[in-house]
Amino acid sequence: MSDPDDESTEPSAEGAASAPSGKGKRRAMSNVGLEIKESDLSNPIVAKFLADELEDLRGELGDARKIIAESHSTNIKVAVLEERLNTKRAVEILSTGAVATGSILIGLAGGNLLSDSSTSRSVDVVAEPLILPASTDSGLVWIILSLGVILLICGVAAKAIKS
Question: Residue spans with biased composition (Low complexity) (predicted)?
C-alpha cells in the first residue's frame, strides 16, 4: 500500500500544469528544498543559481515597492474624493432644506395675504390662515414672505452652483 504522504510529494503532470507560476519562478524547482551547505557555496553552479534567485527577488522587490507607492497615492486620492463627496452632500442637504423652508414660508405668508380681509381680492379656497392668526401684522407677513423668497433663491442658487 502506498502512503498518502508519498503521493503529495510527487509532482504530477496535472499539478505542474495547474500550479501558478510567478514571475521569474521555475516550476521545475518549485518542490525542491533549498538546503545549502558551506561546501556547496564553492560550486559555480550553486553560485550562479543563487545569483539568479537574488536577481529575481530584487526584481520582485522593486515591483512590490512600485505597487505600494501606487497604493498610497490611490489611498490619498480616495480620501480627497470622499471629502469632496461629503462636502457636496452637505451642500445638497442645506440647499434642499433652504428650498423647502422657503417654500413653506412663502405658502404661509401667501395664505395670510390672500385671506386678509383688507385686500380687495378675495379667494374662496383659502378662507382662514392656517398657522398665523388673522390679526397678524401685515408687516410681519411681508417679512416672512421676503425671508421665504430669499431662502428659496439661495437654495436654488446653491444647487445651480453645485452642478
Answer: 10-22
Q: Residues 152-163: pLDDT tens digits?
A: 999 999 888 876
What pLDDT, in 10s, does the model give residues 44-66?
A: 888 888 889 899 999 999 999 99
Average pLDDT over residues 93-98: 92
Span 96-127, pLDDT tens digits = 999 999 998 888 887 777 665 454 444 455 44
| Inside any domain, residue 105 | yes
155, 97 contact by CB (below 8 A):
yes
C-alpha cell at 140: 410681519
Q: Give the domain extent around 133.
A: 37-162
Q: Does the pLDDT of residue 22 top 60, yes or no?
A: no
DSSP letter string, the chain? ---HHHHHHSPPHHHHHHS---TT--GGGTT------GGGGGSHHHHHHHHHHHHHHHHHHHHHHHHHHHHHHHHHHHHHHHHHHHHHHHHHHHHHHHHHHHHHHHHHHHHHHHH-TTSS---SS--S-SSS-TT--HHHHHHHHHHHHHHHHHHHHHHHHH-
Asked, for residue 80, whether it belongs to a domain, the answer is yes
Q: Which amino acid is at 149?
A: V
> Would residue 71 count as lying in a domain?
yes
